[in-house]
Specification:
The protein is an all-alpha fold and 320 residues long. The protein has helices spanning 3-10, 32-64, 81-88, 92-121, 128-134, 137-140, 143-154, 159-166, 179-206, 210-218, 223-250, 255-260, 272-282, 286-309, 311-314, and strands at 66-69, 74-77. It has a two-stranded antiparallel ribbon with strand order 1-2. Helix 2 runs antiparallel to helix 14.
Length: 320
């Protein structure tokens, strides 16, 4: 045995001290700097939105507790009288059901139409890019111009009556109030904004993994089974987004009602957003209109909150 071997045997083995990992409480977040930078970019816009929106919300709530004389600008505190008046207003017995029907119809119809059109436009066909562009054109037109065009189509003895008359059908009361007029409003609003929703759904469809679809196809799953069990769960976050956009947007419908019927006859085609305008700017009842605006805000807030709480039952997230 040489000297080197003796040294190797005689030298004690070095024992490394155990590695002490820093506590997760003391360890700085990995992306802390990136998050701070991102929030700093968002802060000006968010703070401005909160400041303006919060100020307006507080001001409207304050006005709802007063009786306001629009001419003299005199405000008299009346407490909750404006809110109590809502329950005794006969017009609201028509306006609130109209609003609920319109919101449900437009939200469901708009979401289903967006999914269906996105599936059709997701096909690999010649000239499909032309149709993808054409479906977005109505979104580039102002709502006023879009409503005026549709008013020409559905007015008495208009284009739609001419088409139905060619098949021997009697003219329909498209704009005479009731359920049919609300359906017309929903179709006009849906066709105006469907392009934006289709773009969102089309992007979600194109992100569905092809290997999942191919595996299901090899297992014998048909087109409907693949769409129901693979495509729909994969695009469910986009469906939720479109549905929530349709819900919040349906509460704000205004131009269509103003330009096509003016809420008439009477209030048969009026909805809550138009009723607020009518009370505030036509009847100069600022306090009562403000109470209706607060009710509208609370309705949107409650409905979106309920939808958001129910999302985990219907929306699939890969990270879960």
């Amino acid at each position: 045995m040489n000297r080197t071997d003796h040294a190797a045997v005689a030298a004690p083995a070095r024992v490394r001290p155990p590695r002490v990992r820093p506590s997760s409480k003391n360890r700085p977040p990995r992306d802390a700097g990136r998050n701070v930078f991102g929030y700093s970019l968002l802060a000006p816009g968010v703070l401005g939105f909160v400041a303006v929106g919060g100020t307006a919300l507080v001001w409207v709530f304050w006005l709802s507790l007063h009786s306001v004389n629009a001419l003299s600008q005199k405000k008299t505190f009346v407490g909750l009288d404006n809110y109590v008046r809502i329950f005794h207003d006969p017009d609201m017995k028509t306006v609130f059901p109209n609003t609920a029907f319109f919101v449900v119809l437009l939200s469901v119809l708009g979401t289903v139409a967006a999914v269906a059109l996105a599936v059709l436009l997701n096909q690999k066909l010649a000239g499909i890019n032309f149709f993808r562009s054409a479906i977005f054109v109505p979104a580039l037109v102002t709502m006023v111009a879009w409503a005026l065009v549709w008013h020409f189509i559905v007015q008495p003895k208009g284009l739609l009556d001419g088409i139905t008359g060619a098949f021997g059908l009697d003219p329909m009361p498209w704009l005479r109030g009731g359920t049919l007029t609300l359906v017309v409003f929903a179709v006009v609003q849906m066709t105006k904004n469907v392009g934006v929703n289709v773009i969102i759904m089309l992007a979600a469809l194109q992100s569905v993994p092809e290997d999942l679809l191919e595996a299901a196809r090899l297992d014998g799953a048909g087109a409907w089974a693949r769409f129901r069990h693979i495509v729909v769960p994969q695009i469910s976050p986009a469906i939720l987004m479109v549905f929530m956009l349709m819900v919040t947007g349906s509460f704000k419908v205004f131009e269509i009602v103003l330009l096509m019927t003016g809420g008439g006859p009477g209030v048969q085609s009026s909805v809550l957003s138009f009723a607020i305008y009518h009370e505030a700017f036509e009847l100069n009842d600022i306090g009562y209109a403000s109470s209706l605006a607060v009710i509208l805000f609370l309705a949107v807030l409650a409905l979106t909150g309920i939808i958001w709480q129910l999302r985990k039952r219907f929306v699939y997230y890969e990270s879960d």
